[in-house]
């Protein structure tokens, strides 16, 4: 009985067997808890390691998004929602995913020039990676009003670096952006980041100048301008490298094959800021209500047309004469360039017409003096480039003819200019020249009838022979600007033609007109010249711009009769406007020519040393 009591006595209310089972159960539970805590500690440690791993090419980009991108207050949600979406949908790309890394990039201070600078991230910084199969790259020359959007350049870009005017259109900011075939970025070991500033994502790359005495100081000024436009960012790519890359891209680029893109940084000068614009071209002052036509930039397909840096061009022109010769369309371009350059002159009161003129119609020539910089920008009226003539008629009266064998009367006055820009075209479409009856003359012979294309060829041949014989092309740069398109609808300028309802360019190339036969004649003449003449082929470029003409806004005050049936101007261009782009093309061509001249001078010096 005692033995039975000994073995069956409960320990604290239970038997020995049940207590042992309870003890093993407690030990088993603690082991599980310990394992769980150990796993959690390992997971946290692994997560921290990945998050602060300095390698920007980490295989887990969503960790980088969490720890390197600050949250945004925009309506796109928190960074953690972005994290979950990228975790569960790793290949999804949305605007919020593509552009939320902007806060991690240094924001430049607003400046007078709104540009985008491509920089290299230092190796010690974590590079934000966008979780998308295709990195979002802006097409050149798009504008955006948002200063916080960042674009990542392609990691596998193998092309040489070329600085681009990179701008994003506000009208298409909600659409995925694509990379143009010719677009390149600054090569770097780490993916370059575009740092935005202000409204426009454009950098105006520029070229160095030749080393002649008249151009001293240009290189240093240009370098300072490039550094200023970088908005204080430090780039591993030198200014000289950027200049060389720009020139290389321009050398192999067709500047005249492209499209018009919106750019909020344009026009090149504020509307109303230039008092030198003729009433005929001053559309805003004459009451034109829309201004969108001023917000377009010409963008070639295979390169970026550099923005015209007026300060740099002023330096290039020091001590020189730049002369336009031709019809009123060249006057349009002349006034455009004067306004662009005057806008960057420090003392605008020292920019004036040589004879104090303020209206630029009716005289044979005009000359604007930039006194502080010792150069002139001139215009000589010569609508045919050959001489208008008068000869006695049978009844004793005088008959107007066109001497196809003589250049214009003023040719001796401008043959020694440093830069010459010729044009002709529109006057060859008028009734008298188009019909060609008893009008064209060679020597004492007046043709009873002559086809206008043949007369055009004869006139240009006379001009070309004069250039070859009289212009020293080793000293003077000679350009010929092509035909500028007109956009009359429902008639011509004197028969009810209109364009006042046009407010947007043509965007579909199929609506462009065929290349003018007269320009084919011009190309053949230029090809047969002894000296090289640079052809500014702006015909197609202007054909897009049916929205850029003065139309009914060619005059500030219309008479009652003019209001009833106003004659519209669909040939010339509003300023600021399309001719500004012609001058940007001219600027790009000057950069290329000066680059070639500098290389030639260096080669000559090397030969002398050898």
SSE layout:
Elements: H1 2-8, H2 16-51, H3 61-68, H4 79-88, H5 95-99, E1 117-119, E2 193-195, H6 218-229, H7 239-251, E3 258-262, E4 296-300, H8 310-317, E5 321-326, H9 328-342, E6 351-353, E7 365-370, E8 375-381, E9 386-392, E10 398-407, H10 411-414, E11 419-422, H11 431-435, E12 440-442, E13 445-446, H12 452-470, E14 477-481, H13 517-527, E15 534-536, H14 539-543, H15 560-564, H16 578-609
Parallel strand pairs: 5-8, 5-11, 10-12, 11-14, 14-15
Antiparallel strand pairs: 1-2, 3-4, 6-7, 7-8, 9-10, 12-13
Features:
15 strands, 7-stranded mixed sheet, 16 helices, alpha/beta, globular, single chain, 610 residues
Characterise this structure.
This protein is an alpha/beta fold and 610 residues long. It is 32% helix and 12% strand. The strands form 4 sheets. Strands 6-7-8-5-11-14-15 form a 7-stranded mixed sheet, with helices on one face. A 4-stranded mixed sheet has the order 9-10-12-13. Strands 1-2 form a two-stranded antiparallel sheet.
Brief account:
The chain has helices at 2-8, 16-51, 61-68, 79-88, 95-99, 218-229, 239-251, 310-317, 328-342, 411-414, 431-435, 452-470, 517-527, 539-543, 560-564, 578-609; strands at residues 117-119, 193-195, 258-262, 296-300, 321-326, 351-353, 365-370, 375-381, 386-392, 398-407, 419-422, 440-442, 445-446, 477-481, 534-536.
